[in-house]
Amino acid sequence: MKINKILYSISISALFLTAVSCERYLDTEPISDQTVDVNNPLSTAQRAEEAMTTIYSDFGNEYWQLDYLLNGDAQTDISYAGADNVQNFQQDEYRILATNTNVNRDWGYLSNFMDHCNKILNYVDGAGDLSTVRKNQMKAEASIFRAMYLFHMVQLWGDVPIVTKSFITINSDNFDEAYTQLYPKRQSVNDVYAQIISDLEGAIANAPASSEKYKANKGAAYALLAKVYATKPNPDWAKVKQYSDLVISQGYSLLPVYDHLFDSNHEGNAESIFEANGNASNIWAWCTSMYVGTDWKKFNTPSNDLIKTYNDAGDIQRLNTTVKFSAVGWSDPYWSGNNFPFMNKMRLTDGNQNFYILRLSDILLLKAEADVRTGDFSGAATLINQVRTRVALPAITITSTDDGINKVLAERKSELAFEGHRWFDLKRTGKSISILSQQKNGSGVILPYTSNINQNRLLWPIPQAQLDKNQNLTQNSGY
């Protein structure tokens, strides 16, 4: 019986290597001439540091460079999908199929990113020539990243697997555990959030200082915790305010000029909490040419609604920073070719573009939302007005909870457009269907595809390719 189990393990291990290693191992490790210890792939400081570099190199991946912004904005009233990818059109028009290749690749990317984190968390203690202080910091950074990616997954799909182990070898001793981690079941949303919170709260003590803006730092952990406590089922608004205040206490401040956030002359600035460093040797920020330029139709075309929002409010500073108009050699159902809009926050086309993962105004407006939810309308208005004052807009007042949430959402829309937040903001506040079903074209006519939006469409389908590979997964309702 034991022999049969070992033989079966060997057979399944081969299957694992065929199905998994190409995605998780073979093409994700930095090149090195070191021999890998099969019992501990991070047995030296060099190996451990290479594994950390891999985690940060993921900012150069298609997920961050393209999909994250499309997921957060092209599914909303901020932008149209743009370009000519039919998979993106499915997202834009709330008719995603389980066979959508964007959805499948994002599941794969996020799973791989978390596996990179698990390598550090599972094996870095075995790096004999690495100091304990450095090991603990690396584990803290990896925990913050893993929590962030799991947060992305739970918002996109709801119940998702919780995978905390990275396997280098599979044998009869670890076979059962390996099977549950490589072919995992979906876990409840509540369990997923508990894991996220555990990772983030456990990372704070050893995370890099908040001043290290290109690392997963203490300020980033605080900011993510504020967002997580606001987003999870039964939000804890006291915790949102607690962690927002901890962010604010780190010494961040709003830049006096809004455009300086994106002009590439103020990188790692006072408002930045966590920033992807496009100037780093391990990140090539190729994405900008996907959004700006007149040589071909680009992705994430600003919507008529977004331009109207800026113009109606007299919000000229943020309009000019966020959107650029040019004459082009094409048109579409929304815009003519003689004055076509492009998202303008990603501007450098030389591969050195930085982009924000978290910045202060996001957290100020999140705290304003928490204030509204707890009845502090005056406190919420003060925070919103702090953001509005920078762009020379008049102060607002708040008269009720619904009025406050609507004003928070309106400010977040104008302040954070094309930074990947809108889809998740609308879902968190329960406003997705009421707002997105009323999207209009430039003539004021409701767009026909908005009738597709319903409660089921607020979660993506589990990719059919993943269901085919893993019989332990189940599909979301409505797909």
Automatic annotation (TrEMBL):
SUPFAM superfamilies reported in the protein's UniProt record: TPR-like
Chief location: membrane
Pfam families assigned: SusD-like_3, SusD_RagB
Classification via Gene3D superfamilies: 1.25.40.390
Domain of life: Bacteria
Keywords tagged on the record: Cell outer membrane, Membrane, Signal
Family (UniProt): Belongs to the SusD family.
Name by which UniProt lists this protein: RagB/SusD family nutrient uptake outer membrane protein
Organism: Chryseobacterium formosus
